[in-house]
Design brief:
Strand content: under 5%
Radius of gyration: 13 Å
Shape: elongated
Helix content: over 70%
Largest sheet: none
């Protein structure tokens, strides 16, 4: 796997997490703990993407 394809895959995962968070936040039976967990994963992915893109 090349670096650019790896970064693209991470960006897809980040987008999917973002969509999941938005959907969960709109839900009347939202789980704040799960939302926080997904947001943390999103942030970690974003930081990884930033580091890999800087190289």
């Amino acid at each position: 796997m090349t670096l650019s394809s790896h970064v693209q895959e991470l960006k897809k995962k980040h987008q999917n997490l973002s969509e999941s968070v938005e959907m969960m936040q709109r839900s009347p039976a939202k789980d704040d703990l799960e939302i926080a967990k997904l947001k943390k994963q999103k942030l970690m992915l974003k930081e990884t993407i930033k580091k890999l893109s800087a190289n």
